[in-house]
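REVIEWER CHECKLIST
Item 1: Sequence provided? yes
Item 2: Single chain? yes
Item 3: Sequence as submitted:
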Amino acid sequence: MRNVVIACGGTGGHLTPGIALAQNLEEKGYPSWLFISQKAVDSRLSRKYPKLSFEPMPGAPLIKSPLGLARFVYGFIFSFLRSYRFFGRVGADALVGFGGFSSFGPAMAARARGIPVFIHEANRAVGKAVRFLAKRSNRLYLPEGVLLDGISPEVIRNIGYPLRKEFRRIPKERARKQLGISLQDRLLVVLGGSQGAVALNRWVKDNLESLAAEGISTYCLTGMNNESSGVVQLEGLGGQIVTNRFVSFTDEMNTVLSAADLVISRAGAGAIAEIVRCRIPSILIPYPFAADNHQFLNGEFLELKGGSILCAEDNMSENLLDEVREVMFNEDFRTILRRNLFALDCGDVASRISDDICQCLKDRAANEPIQGGVLRMIG
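Item 4: Structure as written out by the authors:
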């Protein structure tokens, strides 16, 4: 066995693929540790996996301000030193980073110890940390069709987004039953990501009556930092009661998505991968201030593949309600979207990444001895 350290965390979009990879590596005989960020979303999700070992790792994103720079430097120094000591203590053989600030310190510490570095970028615009680490990596995992200037194609593997082994599409009837939602309801699910989206939450509240008048109920994931949970009931068509649910967080996203007729979501790579896996028609609202406009590029790719509709946040008030009506009441169009989503599913990405990592370590072992150890994950 070998010690493989995985750096992930900071958002659900960074942590969940790390967990997915750890699950697959463990199935191949590699036990795992995970270092996660100190955010509440990481703490809550980690409690769902008692068989994995989690430890918070200091760190902060790079923000262009004196205070932001100071926090980044402070977090980097502490994460570098803790990672460096950790690698030496367990005899780490490889570092896998999933991008973002949580990967930077551990990856640099791995390089300082001469440990191979594997980096995964989920978005179609390569982030700052990944751009910096790419030239210092033994392998770079990128989305379909994405390359990076100055990086040899031999280093790059175009691959998808690893989903946890339990994240499966389930029958709508079972999903609705688990959520307490009638199978007869037309259900619109609204997602803002693990951090929520104020603009999407506001749009739902502003349009509850209009949606109810069409017989459309909503299930809105508001995010842990934005809104409290609650239920709003309105009178709809023919006096029918339309129930609207507001939930701050769920770790059963596959159930929520499988229950939906239509999803409105931000266009993070993780959200898109989950929508594709559950084959749910969607309208994507890219976060307009995402770094390097990566959410627009993610959403544009899915729209060009015939798997979604893209709507700019600036156009939500004018166009979104009409688009919801058009998609919700057009079963033929939703069938086409579902068929295209099925074709876009990348399958077991975690297994392909873990196989590649294991093969790289075996090739390395053929050239120089590697001490045995235990797989550990850092996020």
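Item 5: Key structural point noted by reviewer: The CA atoms of residues 46 and 60 lie 19 Å apart.
Item 6: Recommendation: ____
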